[in-house]
Amino acid sequence: MVSIQCLTHLKSNLRTRLLLLFQPKTKQSFLRLASSKLRLLSLCCSISSANAFQKGTSLSKEQTLMSLLKKCSAMKDLLQIHARIIQSGFEQNLFVIGKVIVFCADSERGDMNFAVPVFENIGNPDGFLWNTMIRGFSKTSEPLKAFDYYKRMQGKGLVADNFTFSSLLKACGQVGSVLLAEQMHCSTLKHGLESHLFVRNALIHMYGMFKYIETSRQLFEEIPSPELVAWNTIIGCYVYCGRCREALDMFSRMLKFGIEPDEATLVETLAACSALGALDFGKWVHSCISNTGLGSILEVNNSLIDMYAKCGAVEEAYETFYRMKKRNTITWNTMILGLATHGQTNEALALFSKMLEQKLLEPDGVTFLGVLCACSHGGMVEEGRKFFGIMSKEYLIQPTIKHYGCMVDILGRAGFVEEAYGLVRSMPMECNAIVWRTLLAACRLHGNVELGKQVRRHLLQLEPNHSSDYVLLSNMYASVGQWNEVMKVRKSMLNTGVQKPEPGNSFIRMHPSRSKD
């Protein structure tokens, strides 16, 4: 504004003085006047440029901060950027500070404990920031805090929207409270949001997590034209509830409606095939996607390997593994474990060695679980001891109860029952019934009655009425000819009302023979 006035004033004065330019007596005075006016013009332009520069600096600061936040990938970086935000005076800028909270809420490396003081320092947070805090806590191990922020949000007079309820419904599943879930469902009805796409999918998923699959199905069927996310949600709910046959039926029905699957659909469908041992259905799914873009997705290929391995088609699993151009740790783990569970010990260990040789990926706890499983099936005691040791010493992976269980199985199968017992007693965590039962089975196998009695006492404290423990103990006494003890065990089983479960069923898949003409 100042520069425009200056220019207008100069223009008027210069026009007046131009007529005097050709008069010799006034030439010097005119030059002095023109020189002073030019200095004024320069000053005015400097003021204008300074104002523009100051505005540009503020804008450039915000752009710089946003660029840094976009590149942020760790909390260490976020702490430095936040310090710069405060230094630049942007800590009350909802757009900038919102990105800090979004990182804490949505990033795998975010920390909601850091988001709390940042949020509390904001003078007047908007609905987006409240929703971000609710969403962030719905993903943590403290989902109840999401409801605390919801109550505070209501107290501020802000209206909850579809994003709010989508996060709260997810938190209900984590809390495990059916009553709270039903209250939230009622709130969505009061706000007229039950039919909203995000909220409806969240409701279907929430009831599925409570294993109220019929309610999930009813909510799904009420959708006039369900989209892909709704189909994925209901299929996932069926798989989670162990009703995998219905999951495959829903997948087939989805295809009939002309809905194209995505990677999430295929991962859930292949998981259902794995659980059912539905090899033919899994092969059909594989054939449908083999020539599409979905066939090259890493997660889909990992699911295919898992499906083939669990259905006993180890060759097809390895073929899928071999064809993959990109692999992650899950890929290697799935293949190693698949080979190990089918007794292909040498192949599993060779694949593990190949993984280490490539030095592209570090093995994790699941990798070593597959390796120890292979050693157990192959009776490789020394190798098992070696891998169990290097897991913690070289790779700094703390053994879990499953790793200890594998080592007990390795030692127990080979007859080192006393060493296995010592390992159990030295575990840093409390032993569960499965590991004790593994040791009891080893005592029965090798006729170590005295140790078997000790193990049985531990099992009585954990699961006193488990029928297999009675059977193992009875068979152990029978293996050494202590028939009186056998009768005592069977009588005790009878008196306590423990009954053996119904016998299981197995089936063999056979291909019909084809006659050649």
Automatic annotation (TrEMBL):
Alphabetically ordered keywords of this record? Repeat
Leader sequence range is none
Keyword Repeat: yes or no?
yes
Q: Does the keyword GTP-binding apply?
A: no
Which PROSITE patterns does the entry mention?
PPR
The PPR repeat boundaries are: 126-160, 227-261, 328-362
Identify the PANTHER family for this entry: PENTATRICOPEPTIDE REPEAT-CONTAINING PROTEIN, TETRATRICOPEPTIDE-LIKE HELICAL DOMAIN SUPERFAMILY
Q: Mind telling me what this protein is named?
A: Pentacotripeptide-repeat region of PRORP domain-containing protein
